């Protein structure tokens, strides 16, 4: 397991703007095997999204607005996406700007755990897999 990439992907899904893609591409360019890297990045990023989902389940608006810096506009935008597209919108949880609020809204709306993990994990795996495919 590439723990640096895992940590970068985790933090990208919670606190920091995304640097995990850059680190993945750097490691791929250095010749590291792509499958373990894609799996480490996906696992870290999914775990970060699960933390955001858990904050939504807890309903602690002070915590998510302070720690994740998700404002009410971001939450409103994510709720609109969720109302329009439903569960499949979670496939886009990897997107900048709207991804973290989507995970938070899924928690606030009490989306079941297994569909959340499958959809968010699939979207994140596809993103990292596509990046690896571009380099490889």
Q: How many domains comprise the coordinates?
A: 1
Mean pLDDT: 88
* Low-pLDDT residue intervals, each spanning 5 or more residues: none
| Dominant shape | elongated
How far do the termini sit from each other?
19 Å
- The helix/strand series, from N terminus to C terminus, equals HHHHHHH
By secondary-structure content and strand pairing, the structural class works out as mainly alpha
Kindly state the percentage of residues in helix. Answer: over 70%
User: What is the rounded Rg?
Assistant: 15 Å
Strand content bin: under 5%
Number of helices: 7
Tell me how many strands there are: 0
Biggest sheet, in brief? none
What would your notes on this structure say?
There is one protein chain. The protein is built from 7 helices and no strands. By secondary structure, the protein is mostly helical. It has one domain (3-135). The longest helix has 25 residues, at 34-58.
Strand and helix map with partners:
Blueprint: H1 3-12, H2 20-29, H3 34-58, H4 61-67, H5 72-85, H6 99-108, H7 113-135
Helix pairs in contact: 1-2, 1-3, 2-3, 2-7, 3-6, 3-7, 5-6
């Amino acid at each position: 397991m590439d723990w640096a990439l895992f940590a970068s992907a985790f933090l990208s899904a919670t606190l920091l703007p995304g640097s995990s893609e850059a680190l993945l591409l750097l490691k791929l360019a250095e010749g590291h095997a792509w499958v373990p890297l894609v799996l480490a990045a996906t696992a870290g990023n999914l775990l970060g999204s699960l933390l955001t989902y858990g904050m939504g389940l807890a309903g602690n608006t002070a915590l998510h607005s302070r720690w994740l810096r998700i404002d009410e506009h971001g939450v409103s935008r994510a709720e609109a996406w969720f109302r329009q597209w439903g569960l499949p919108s979670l496939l886009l949880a990897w997107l900048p700007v709207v991804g973290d609020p989507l995970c938070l809204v899924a928690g606030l709306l009490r989306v079941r755990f297994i569909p959340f993990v499958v959809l968010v994990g699939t979207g994140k795996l596809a993103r990292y897999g596509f990046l690896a495919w571009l380099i490889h």
